[in-house]
Amino acid sequence: MFPERTGYIIWVSDLKAARNLEKYGSVHYLSRRMHYVVMYVNAERAEDTIKNIRRLPYVRRIERSYRNEIKTEYTKDVPDKTQYYGL
């Protein structure tokens, strides 16, 4: 139903010009203080899109987000110690 998305953190030198990144994917967050943009692009076209973004003069560095690979299902293997801490 929804296409697979990949997140990227793009470090920029000019925030005004960084608004143009919206034509390459969906911009999720733009940090004014630290000068980076978090954006999501389609996973099947990600390589070509990042190659085009890397050519832009205001882009300093591009990092891939590992949020999809972080384990979000937790198990409770540790026993509950709250019974030992009485009020």
In a nutshell, what does this entry contain?
The chain has helices at residues 15-18, 46-54, and strands at 5-12, 26-31, 36-42, 59-64. It is an alpha+beta fold. It has one domain (5-68): Peptidase S8 propeptide/proteinase inhibitor I9 (Alpha-Beta Plaits), CATH 3.30.70.
Explain this structure to me?
With 87 residues, the chain is an alpha+beta fold. It has one domain (5-68): Peptidase S8 propeptide/proteinase inhibitor I9 (Alpha-Beta Plaits), CATH 3.30.70. The protein has helices spanning 15-18, 46-54, and strands at residues 5-12, 26-31, 36-42, 59-64. A 4-stranded antiparallel beta sheet has the order 2-3-1-4, covered by helices on one side. A hairpin with a 4-residue loop joins strand 2 and strand 3. The relative contact order is 0.25. The model has no long low-confidence stretch (mean pLDDT 90).
Provide key terms for this protein.
Alpha-Beta Plaits; alpha+beta; 4-stranded antiparallel beta sheet; 87 residues; cytoplasm
Mean pLDDT across all amino acids: 90
Low-confidence sequence ranges: none
What is the second-level CATH architecture?
Answer: 2-Layer Sandwich
How far from one another are the termini? 51 Å
Helicity range: 10-25%
Beta strands, count: 4
For the record, the CATH class is Alpha Beta
Please, how many helices?
2
Q: Which structural class is indicated by helix and strand composition?
A: alpha+beta
CATH superfamily annotation: Peptidase S8 propeptide/proteinase inhibitor I9
The main sheet orders its strands as: 2-3-1-4
- The 3D shape can be described as elongated
What series of H and E elements makes up the topology? Answer: EHEEHE
Largest sheet: 4 strands, antiparallel
CATH topology: Alpha-Beta Plaits
How many structural domains in the coordinates?
1
Pfam family, one: DUF2129
Protein name: DUF2129 domain-containing protein
Keywords: Cytoplasm
Organism: Paenibacillus aceti
